[in-house]
């Protein structure tokens, strides 16, 4: 294992909005990364009853969903339904239809996908700007 193997795949992005939860998802997401993401979201829900979410995928290489406990996924889904208003996904793959398929049809979360080159439009849609610099894809 080298030092890069220990870098978390989920990294918070500081933003101009306190009620916007924004993250970079870089490379492969392990079950520990997914559990960490749910924990970070729980903390955001504790601070703000309603939040918007921005997920920026960078060199995404899949998620180990099979290794995340069913209880964590069920609680994460229930919390998302209760607390998230809008969710912007930036980059590929476009996972929105999969996320919507996990949620009840009547969920009021507004999802929107943006290509990586349209990232500015995602931030505009959420009326926010990033404070921390973006993660650059490998080879850039």
Automatic annotation (TrEMBL):
Signal peptide: none annotated. InterPro entries: SpoIIAA-like, SpoIIAA-like_sf, STAS_dom_sf. SUPFAM superfamilies: SpoIIaa-like. Pfam families: SpoIIAA-like. It comes from the Bacteria. This is STAS/SEC14 domain-containing protein. It comes from Mesorhizobium sanjuanii.
